[in-house]
Design brief:
- The structure holds two protein chains of two kinds.
- Chain A folds into two domains: 62 residues, no CATH class; 35 residues.
- Chain A is built from one helix and five strands.
- In chain A, strands 1, 2, 3, 4 and 5 form a five-stranded antiparallel sheet that branches.
- In chain A, a hairpin with a 2-residue loop joins strand 4 and strand 5.
- The longest helix of chain A is centred in the C-terminal third of the chain and has 31 residues.
- The mean pLDDT of chain A is 89.
- Chain B is 32% helix and 38% strand.
- Chain B is α+β, with helices and mostly antiparallel strands.
- In chain B, a hairpin with a 2-residue loop joins strand 3 and strand 4.
- At the A-B interface, strand 1, strand 2, strand 3, strand 4 and helix 1 of A face strand 2, strand 3, strand 4 and helix 2 of B.
Chain lengths: 97, 149
C-alpha cells in the first residue's frame, strides 16, 4: 500500500554539507507543503547556513533582499495612505465645525 | 452496462492515475536540492546558489451517464424508441487541471577558508515594478482626495 502523505507540512530541512578549508557549511531550507485531494502546493525557500569552524557552530541567516524591499515598499504605501486619510479626516472635521 | 461505459471509465481512471502521479511528485520540490544548487569550486572558493521555489497544482474530473425511460402504458413520444434492443442512453466524462510554478534566485553562498559569505541577489525588475505600483496607487489616492475636498 502506498505511503499516505501528510496534508500539511511546515518543516526545516538540511541540505548537503559543503566543506572548504576547515569550514563546514550546511544550508537549511524551510518547506511549506499543503496537499488536498486533487492537488497541492509547495513553497520551498532557503533560510540559513549552519557554519561549523574550529569546533564552534554558528547560524547565518539568508536574507531575501527582494522580498524585504517589496515588503518595505508595501509598508511605506500603507503608512502614507493612513497618514493621508487621517489628514483628510481632520480637514473634513474642521470644515464642519 | 455497455462496452462504451467501460471504455469511458477506464479512460477516466487512467487519466486520474496519471495526474495523481504528478501530484505525488510534488515531493521532489520539497527536497533541499530544489533550493540549493550544486557546489562549484573555483580555487579556494566554493559557491552554492540558493533559490526560492514555489509550485501549485490542482485537477478535477467527473463522469456520468443515463438511459431512457421505459415505455409506460398508453404513453406516446420519441423517448420510447429502442435502438438495437437496448434502451437509449449516453455516458461521458471529462476533467481539467492547472498549475503554476516559479523560481527566483535569493542568494549566493561563498565558502572559503576565511569563512562563509552570503550575498543577497536583488531582483531589480520586481522591486521596480513594486515601486511603480506603489507610486501609481499613491497618485490615484491623492488625486481622489484632492477632488473630494
Amino acid at each position: 500500500m502506498a505511503e499516505r502523505k501528510p496534508m500539511f507540512r511546515y518543516v526545516l530541512v538540511d541540505g548537503t554539507p559543503v566543506s572548504a578549508g576547515g569550514v563546514r557549511a550546511t544550508p537549511q531550507a524551510r518547506v511549506l507543503e499543503v496537499r488536498w485531494p486533487g492537488g497541492g502546493l509547495v513553497w520551498n525557500r532557503p533560510v540559513a547556513v549552519i557554519v561549523k569552524r574550529d569546533g564552534t557552530t554558528s547560524q547565518m541567516p539568508i536574507v531575501d533582499a527582494t522580498r524585504a524591499a517589496q515588503l518595505a515598499l508595501g509598508a511605506f504605501a500603507a503608512l502614507v495612505s493612513m497618514m493621508a486619510a487621517a489628514r483628510a479626516a481632520r480637514t473634513f472635521r474642521r470644515g464642519h465645525e | 452496462m455497455s462496452d462504451e461505459v467501460h471504455r469511458v471509465m477506464e479512460s477516466t481512471d487512467r487519466a486520474h492515475e496519471r495526474v495523481a502521479g504528478l501530484v505525488e511528485r510534488l515531493t521532489d520540490v520539497t527536497r533541499p536540492g530544489a533550493v540549493f544548487g550544486e557546489p562549484m569550486t573555483v580555487g579556494e572558493n566554493t559557491v552554492v546558489t540558493a533559490a526560492e521555489v514555489f509550485l501549485a497544482m490542482g485537477y478535477g474530473y467527473g463522469m456520468g451517464g443515463g438511459s431512457g425511460k421505459a415505455r409506460e402504458e398508453g404513453e406516446e413520444g420519441p423517448r420510447t424508441e429502442v435502438h438495437g434492443g437496448e434502451m437509449p442512453g449516453g455516458y461521458g466524462g471529462g476533467g481539467g487541471g492547472g498549475g503554476s510554478s516559479k523560481g527566483r534566485p535569493v542568494a549566493v553562498i561563498t565558502i572559503n577558508p576565511a569563512g562563509v559569505r552570503i550575498e543577497p541577489v536583488l531582483d531589480l525588475t520586481k522591486i521596480g515594478l513594486a515601486f511603480l505600483m506603489v507610486l501609481g496607487s499613491l497618485f490615484v489616492m491623492m488625486g481622489k482626495m484632492r477632488r473630494s475636498m
